[in-house]
Amino acid sequence: MSPESERETVPDAPVEAPESDAAGLATAEVTPRFEEVVAQAHAASELDLTAEPVLTVENLRMYFPIKTSLLRRTIGQVQAVDGISFVVPKGSSLGLVGESGCGKSTTGQLITRLYKPTGGSMSFEGADLAKMGNSELKPLRKEIQMIFQDPYSSLNPRHTVGTIVGTPLRVHNVVPKKQVLSRVQELLEVVGLNPEHYNRYPNEFSGGQRQRIGIARALALQPKLMVADEPVSALDVSIQAQVINLLQDVQKEFGIAFLFIAHDLAVVRHFCPEVAVMYLGKIVEIGDRESIYSGAHHPYTQALLSAVPDVKQAATGGRRERIRLTGEVPSPINPPSGCRFRTRCPLAQEICARHEPPLIQIGQRHKVACHFPGRLGEHPREPFTARLLGVDAHGQPDPSASPTTDLIQQPGYSDTWFDLDNRSIGRA
Ligand SMILES: Nc1ncnc2c1ncn2[C@@H]1O[C@H](COP(=O)(O)OP(=O)(O)OP(=O)(O)O)[C@@H](O)[C@H]1O
Ligand code: SF4
Ligand SMILES: [Mg+2]
After folding, report:
1. Is 393's pLDDT higher than 60?
2. What is the DSSP secondary-structure string of 65-131?
3. pLDDT digits over 193-216, tens only?
4. Rounded average pLDDT over 31-44
5. Does the beta carbon of 104 sit less than 6 angstroms from any atom of ligand 1?
6. CA–CA gap between residue 45 and residue 92 (Å, rounded)
7. What percent of the chain lies above the pLDDT cut of 70?
8. Any alpha helices (H) in 142-236, and if so which ranges?
9. DSSP code for 180
């Protein structure tokens, strides 16, 4: 990809706020536009089924304490992330999507250890990031880097590009001092910027160019994992495809894995062969691109996808109408009992209030957390989970049933799963 068009310093066109529905989901105005320009981009990233995990997250929790202003007594907790498990394969990308406030950024900040988690584990190359102190973390901080949403506020306006990109090299002593400048110039070249512009300041660059500077800074330490939190959502749509192309290029060249946080489902579909859907601190559905975009089984995922015109038809079984969720997202301070989505779910029944639906594997690379999982219009009448949980259809204890322990929410996928279509055990 040639970034020539971006090399000259041109002010960005003002970025229009995307239209959103009452629930704050990005809708028609943004996603199809990315689809239009994505024709200039590389092909969608493919899933490598043989890739080993670089990061394995298990039962990760982050509860922020709520304190009184005077005595600093803890009077409650914000359950921002509440027991999520997933795997990011080496050199691949896992997308994290969901409405505002569902815990996406907190998850990213836990992985980069900006926060110490309340509970759970994050295994990175055999070490548990969740339990480490600062000194143990220091060498690993090189390996996990972050790209931020806002290319304007994430770069210090008083530092030159050379200082910004060179600082990680100096702090971590990765190249001799004399070689820092030439390494910075190499990195600028990799991200498609003019290497001679190392002595310019961020305000001399456009938004897309600044995001390239942020990417060069993140690449400086040759990380194995990047957490990209809405990396293109502040950019003009015509620049989005160029930056996504660049991320695909560096991913391929350096074998970097991505946790890619975004609200734009069309961008995620292009960049991420696997996607996790979050709602109020939980993962409600996770799977490969095909399972999520063409075979979503969770009512929340179906509603999200129905807001994206180009994927709507597949997600809604050929129907064109948009599924509008009513009601507000409940507070993570006092989430609903059982299924957290039940206050807005059109399918909710008694069992949904009594029991949290476990995240169950229903395909080779597909898991869903719902008592009534099914393609749109094909949700079962009886709760699929009742027998497994040892309860009756209303969620009351059933003495004749024997709950199974197979529901333990392990990260990653097993070779066997519950095949909903055939009501049998599926096998890889
Ligand atoms: N430092 C904090 N202290 C207290 N609550 C927090 C803190 N950081 C985040 N939260 C709360 O945790 C929840 C999850 O926030 P988070 O920023 O992770 O959401 P998000 O999915 O990234 O949303 P968005 O799409 O708007 O960026 C929200 O209710 C938020 O208010
Ligand atoms: S468990 Fe119940 S409330 Fe939750 S998504 Fe499924 S049907 Fe809806
Ligand atoms: Mg966020």
Report:
1. yes
2. EEE-TTT--EEEEEEEEEEEEEEEETT-EEEEE-STTSSHHHHHHHHTTSS--SEEEEEETTEEGGG
3. 999 999 999 999 999 999 999 999
4. 66
5. yes
6. 8
7. 87
8. 161-171, 180-190, 207-219
9. H
Euclidean distance between CA atoms 214 and 227, whole angstroms? 12
CA of 264 to the centre of ligand 2 (A): 24
Alpha-carbon distance of 40 to 34, in angstroms, equals 10
Strand partners for 56: 87, 123
Predicted pLDDT of residue 319: 55
Predicted confidence (pLDDT) at residue 9 exceeds the cutoff of 50: no
Q: Which ligand 1 atom is nearest residue 332's CA?
A: 29
Tokens 């699929």 correspond to: 384
Phi, psi of 228 (to 5 degrees): -110, 110
| Residue 149 to residue 103: CA distance in whole angstroms | 15
Burial level of 95, CB count in 10 A (0-12/13-18/19+)? buried
Total residues belonging to the chain: 428
The predicted-structure confidence for 330-389, as pLDDT tens digits, reads as follows 999 999 999 999 999 999 999 999 999 999 999 999 999 999 999 999 999 999 999 889
User: Which residue minimizes the CA distance to atom 5 of ligand 2?
Assistant: 370
Write the residue with the smallest CA distance to atom 6 of ligand 1: 64
